[in-house]
Structure formats: C-alpha cells, structure tokens
Amino acid sequence: MRARRPQVGVVLTAQHRAGVLFAREHQDWQIRHWRPVLFTDESRFTLSTCDRRDRVWRRRGERSAACNILQHDRFGGGPVMVWGGISLGGCTALHVLARGSLTAIRYRDEILRPLVRPYAGAVGPGFLLMQDNARPHTAGVCQQFLQEEGIGLAARSPDLNPIEHIWDIMSRSIHQRHIAPQTVQELAGALVQVWEEIPQETIRHLIRSMPRRCRKVIQARGGHTHY
C-alpha cells in the first residue's frame, strides 16, 4: 500500500440527498406523468429599498417644493407573501397572504380548500399535489383534509420545483418596472398582475424540462453521496 491523496467528496445535506432521490425516481417520467401534477409553493417579495439614485431638476431653494418630493409611505414597507400553483394545463390564482404567519389552519382554509380542491376536481383522477415540507403543509389538520378529499401528494423535491423559476421571473419583472411599487398594497397588486401575464407556454417549458433537470442533479450530486 502507498500513501495517496484522499479523493475529495461533497458532503450532502439532507436536502441535497432528498433532491438526488427525487431525481432518480423521476428521471424517466414522461410528459404524461407530469400532466396531473400541481407544483405549488410560497414565496416572499419585498419592496425595493430607496437607493437614492432618483434625481429631480430644481433651482436653489426649491428642495422642499411639492414637485421635488418623492412620496413614500413609511408604513407601507414590509414583505408580501404569496402562494401559487402551476401545471402543464394551467395555473391557480395567485393568493396573497394577509399579514401574519402562515399557519396550518390558514393553509387549509385559504389555500387547500378554496384553491387546491377545485383544481384537483378539474384535473380529475390521478391529480397529485407537490408541496414542500413546511410545517403548515405537514400538519395533521392539512394531512387529514387531503386524505378526506382524496388528494394525493407527489414526492417532494426541495430544489427541483419548477415554480421557483416563476418566482424569479416575477421578481425581475417587478424590479424592471418603470415605476416600482411603493407600498405593500401596490406590490401585492403588481404581483397578481405579473402572475396573470406569465405565458402558459413558459410554464409548460419549465415542466417539460423536469427529466433533463433530474438527470443534471444526478450527474452533479449522485456520485457524491458522502454523509
């Protein structure tokens, strides 16, 4: 035996291992397998902070003139949390979560019952809901509701949910606006508008790329499963 340099491996987190497992189980899925899956997630958006790059043309002594003041609601700041779902056949309405944290009861009453259940009925047999392992999602009241409604759960993928790309598209669209939202209410309205304007073909393209993305995850991480 000779002394050799050890092979360097990547230490995978539990989330990475779950992603590899998901990728291995779904790399051979065809488009028809993804058709009844509703990919869902929550995301948090925030107002852009003032970067002091706005400029006005004024004369000396006109600093406080009304026409030279940028209106800003000091109480309108803060994040906006939204929930949405996408599938090959369409998407749900974007739900803006009012102030306060998302609890299991709110998740059931504001999302599962009014949004997911009708969507599942429209898709029909074979419908699958994909959600992450957030505490409200896995709470007993929500699991019981899904079971009673006959709504199946797809295997969870921590980092392969295509809706993450939709959030990125929405964020870029909001920040590229000529007039950025100044209050939480304006931001919420802008998010709903952007969501409704996303072409369905963009959503289809993201979901159709799932087999390729699964294979990329396996190639990148599948051979490095050190714990």
Automatic annotation (TrEMBL):
Q: Identify a single GO molecular function assigned to this protein.
A: nucleic acid binding
InterPro entries attached here? RNaseH_sf, Tc1-like_DDE_dom, Transposase_5
Q: Domain Tc1-like transposase DDE spans what residues?
A: 36-178
| Protein known as | Tc1-like transposase DDE domain-containing protein
Species source reads Oncorhynchus tshawytscha
